[in-house]
Automatic annotation (TrEMBL):
<dbReference type="InterPro" id="IPR036116">
    <property type="entry name" value="FN3_sf"/>
</dbReference>
<keyword id="KW-0732">Signal</keyword>
<dbReference type="InterPro" id="IPR013783">
    <property type="entry name" value="Ig-like_fold"/>
</dbReference>
<dbReference type="InterPro" id="IPR019482">
    <property type="entry name" value="IL-12_beta_cen-dom"/>
</dbReference>
<dbReference type="InterPro" id="IPR015528">
    <property type="entry name" value="IL-12_beta"/>
</dbReference>
<keyword id="KW-0325">Glycoprotein</keyword>
<dbReference type="InterPro" id="IPR003961">
    <property type="entry name" value="FN3_dom"/>
</dbReference>
<protein>
    <recommendedName>
        <fullName>Ig-like domain-containing protein</fullName>
    </recommendedName>
</protein>
<feature type="domain" description="Ig-like">
    <location>
        <begin position="24"/>
        <end position="89"/>
    </location>
</feature>
<dbReference type="InterPro" id="IPR007110">
    <property type="entry name" value="Ig-like_dom"/>
</dbReference>
<keyword id="KW-1015">Disulfide bond</keyword>
<feature type="signal peptide">
    <location>
        <begin position="1"/>
        <end position="18"/>
    </location>
</feature>
<dbReference type="Pfam" id="PF10420">
    <property type="entry name" value="IL12p40_C"/>
</dbReference>
<dbReference type="InterPro" id="IPR050676">
    <property type="entry name" value="IL-12"/>
</dbReference>
<keyword id="KW-0393">Immunoglobulin domain</keyword>
Length: 325
């Protein structure tokens, strides 16, 4: 049996009061948008099927029968506070399922409680790309008080065109593939939107960016040191060729032994576009750190690649996670 649902609902009601609106989001999902205030009570009309539905219709909320019972093809439910839910209609109290509507509540407020804010500058969503070939990843972190929050809907677009994305299994990140030409100047930004819900509360997060703003080169390849204390490295394996077109700058730091690469007490700090550097310091034990940045956009730096130098062994060694900051 085919049922008209969201079209009937949205066409029949555009608002519940002067400052509350009811809007469809996706099939079988409507959002009750209310101001950020204390107590709210709003009536939401629901439709089970088409007007020619002749069978008796019984309703449940979250799989439970309602008391008093709700019957009829068209009904109105009272939504109080943040108490939305999944309303399903059936041919009898325990009979065949016909249709359902999930009601979410979204507060018209800048307050966000479902996802953690990474920083005031970055917001709640972090996006990065290893190069300009098109793939980019966005990630987010649930608030400690909302560990079971789930993604309801997400999309990425550029100039109105959909960018295909695939949600990670854990629901905390997404991989998207932008098919724009990597040799072409970006004319339009990417708009990323995610709708996340915790129980009946729904929040929407958006982020707009150009690919050039989020490209973060990967770890450098073939970092090594010769006997003359000359360090050399190669462009990241994930970086595009030719290097003359996609040039990189490199920041290098020499820090004291057992200190992290971002130590405030660095012995030496500088930048270069060369892929080698000779260290000339008095210290017998130190850490050499180097990372890459897009030469032309001067976007975010990639991760540190590092070598540990000691008096006993003058060679590159992997750093512990705490030292790679």
């Amino acid at each position: 049996m085919n049922f008209l649902f969201l079209v009937v609902l949205f066409g029949g009601v555009c608002y519940a009061s002067s400052d509350v609106s009811i809007e469809p989001l996706v099939d079988h999902v409507v959002v009750l948008k209310v101001p950020h205030r204390g107590r709210t009570e709003e009536e939401v009309p629901l439709v089970c099927g088409t007007d020619d539905l002749t069978q008796d219709v019984f309703w449940k909320k979250d799989g439970m029968e309602l008391n008093p019972p709700l019957k009829g093809n068209r009904i109105t439910v009272l939504v109080e506070e943040m108490e939305g839910g999944n309303y399903s209609c059936h041919l009898s109290p325990g009979g065949q399922y016909l249709n359902h509507t999930i009601i979410f509540i979204q507060l018209d407020s800048e307050e966000r409680v479902i996802l953690k804010e990474r920083s005031p500058e970055e917001g709640h969503i972090h996006c990065s790309a290893p190069n300009y070939t098109g793939p980019f990843r966005c990630s987010w972190t649930r608030a400690n008080s909302r560990p079971n929050a789930a993604v309801l809907l997400l999309q990425a677009t550029r100039n109105g065109q959909q960018i295909p994305c695939e949600l990670d299994a854990g629901g905390s990140g997404v991989l998207c593939q932008d098919n724009s030409c990597s040799y072409k100047e970006e004319q339009h930004h990417i708009l990323f939107t995610i709708h996340v819900h915790s129980y009946s509360r729904l929040e929407t997060y958006t982020k707009a960016f150009y690919l050039k703003d989020i490209v973060r080169p990967g770890a450098l390849s073939n970092l090594q040191m010769d006997n003359a204390k000359v360090f050399s490295w190669s462009y990241p394996d994930s970086w595009e060729k030719p290097c003359s077109f996609y040039g990189l700058n490199f920041q290098y730091r020499v820090v004291r032994h057992n200190h992290p690469c971002d130590s405030d007490t660095a012995i030496l700090v500088n930048t270069t576009d060369d892929t080698k550097f000779e260290v000339n310091v008095k210290a017998k034990k130190y850490v050499f750190c180097v990372r890459a940045q897009d030469k032309y956009t001067q976007g975010p730096f990639g991760p540190w690649s590092s070598c540990v130098v000691t008096k006993e062994e003058a060679g590159c060694q992997p750093l512990s996670p705490g030292q790679r900051k």
